[in-house]
Amino acid sequence: MALEALGVASSVIAVIEISGRVAAICFQYSKGVKDAKSEDNRLLREVNNLGETTSSVQDLLDGPCETTLKTSSKLLDAIEEARIHLSKLKDDLRPSSAQKAFRRLRVGALKWPLKSKDVEKVVKQLGRCGQNISLALQVDQTLSNTLYRNVALQEVPEYVIQHDASMFLEHQLAKIRAEYNVTVSEDRQLPLTWPGYETVQALVWMATPLFIFAANVCRYLADLRWHPDDQVAKVLCYQTKTQQSKLDTSYRPVLDPLIEGLDKVEKVELLQQFRAIVGSIIILTRPFSFLSLARILYIPKRTIEHQLDGLYSVLSVPNVSDAPVRLLHLSFRDFLLDPDKKDEKPFWVNEITAHDTMASKCFRLMDDSLRENVCNLKDPAALQTSIDPERVNECIRDDVHLMGRVRETIDMMMALKGLLATQNSEELSELIGDAYRFLSANMGTISSSPLQLYPSALLFSPKESSIRNLFDNSIPQWIRSWPDTQSRWGSCLQILEGHTGAVHTAKFAPFSARMVSASDDRTVRIWDMNTGECLQVIHNPVGVNSAMFSHDERLVVVACNDGIIRLWDVNTEECVQELRGHSGKVSSAVFSSDSKLVVSASYDKTARIWDSLTGKCTMELRGHENEVSSVAISRDSARVVTSSFYDQGVRIWRTLDGKCIGELETNDYSYARAISNDASMAVAGLRSGSVQL
């Protein structure tokens, strides 16, 4: 077993085991806590989905002699993140020993330990984990048509692929043989050597280098409606020597039988239906259920079910109507959409046409279904958390909506703005730009109190806002006096609300659209800069003066009032390191560019350099006569700049030996400082309102 797969296998087993335990705990709560039924069901559904996704990884890892598929660090990271979130959830849900004792004595009731916002956060985390695992797994299983234009397949040793494929096929074919033999009389059973060494080797050769072929062909042969020998013969007819046509080898044995024996008219009709249904499934970002597909495509559910009956080996087709229909592998999408095969493949799907059709269907569905106050709420100030999810489901009926996902519309608007930038449509661009500003300014209100969209968000928008003017008829008539708002949107894009104390610092993440803020209210908050949403709240023991992401955004370094620098893990929200040594409160703490060092400034008149891994102080910088208020480090970690509010100066230090190599007079109290990437310049912000370079 390869070392990479060993790590994945152990994490997979842990995730499946913890998923089962969490599901069991949720089931206990569903029986004992009536008030939390809807939240418990949401959580249980998400946990089961994650467990099912992870089980699919185990199916690929399990095999005779414990053989494994080659896996990537992304898959391991995704599964490990899921394990961490599930472990924390299990601890949060587990009843206390006192509760258990009372329950045994039949005294007191089991109480649901999570708040609605906690459930919402966990559901999002688990959903993201499931998506990350699925994506990493799809990439790991094979190199799709999209990928092998950019990846040198010769770098993967052919014998490695052939060995893995051979072991996988032998194991799966043995299962197929056993399952078939159970269903027939003894004289019709397949021999123990079936399908034979030469056939297995031919299939192995066909599976190189696209391992997904092995998985597809086994699903194809497992369909016992046909004799396994006949199915094998059909597959072998598609042997090819060219790598680009390996996808044909994988998918044509499944698709070609759909049109065999049909006349010209019947073939055209079936292919049109195939493109309408399967063509829609393969372009969807989020998979839909039978019910949702039927509603959005305006095609009867029975027609969709019948169309997908023969596609179990290429699509994950559920047995129930409300479960999503999923791609088993992204290469099926690549196979159908490949523009180079337009004239060669009868099942080719025009991607542009498919998206255009889907967009038209969406507009039609919105026109038929959308209306103001769809849940018939009586109170316009009703909070989103007070709305019964069951009532929402009754009103919406399926998952073809953005209920509870309004923040995603910000990303949609940004994407649409980018598309329109290349189009000659000034009026539409202006409308989308205004809609983006409207959503950004009112995201908090819309998310927490949906019906306030009309009496509040619209009413307080600028007078010349296109969105306000389009929907001003929706502003309630009982509002007699309208506020005197500004004419146009100002330069402020977002107001991030949530802190209850003074905010001392706010810093952007190095790469993602996130920001971290530090406050006197003993919290560090992480924000989505596109939506203004508070993604996480890290609760610190004392007030926080500064916070900063590490270079990989996994850690946040926090300067605390109790003289301690704390390193917090963003994923687990646990303190993983405490840097102790300062005798006064820490005013500022920053990472070096590689996050190996932490530099801190303190009211004890010193700055310190720390090893972030060991937590040891490696250097103490002394020289300021008053408390050190801020600190910065150059990109190459060779220089440190410190400033003191009362010293009226900036000092530059060499990290190699801790020597002060420069002292710059500012002639005023210095609030903040920074250093250029090449350490050739330093800048200070002064009380007078000027910036000195």
TrEMBL record:
It comes from Metarhizium acridum (strain CQMa 102). The keyword rRNA processing does not apply. The keyword Cell membrane does not apply. InterPro entries: WD40/YVTN_repeat-like_dom_sf, WD40_PAC1, WD40_repeat_CS, WD40_repeat_dom_sf, WD40_rpt. Keywords: Repeat, WD repeat. This is p-loop NTPase. WD repeats lie at residues 496-537, 544-578, 579-620, 621-663.
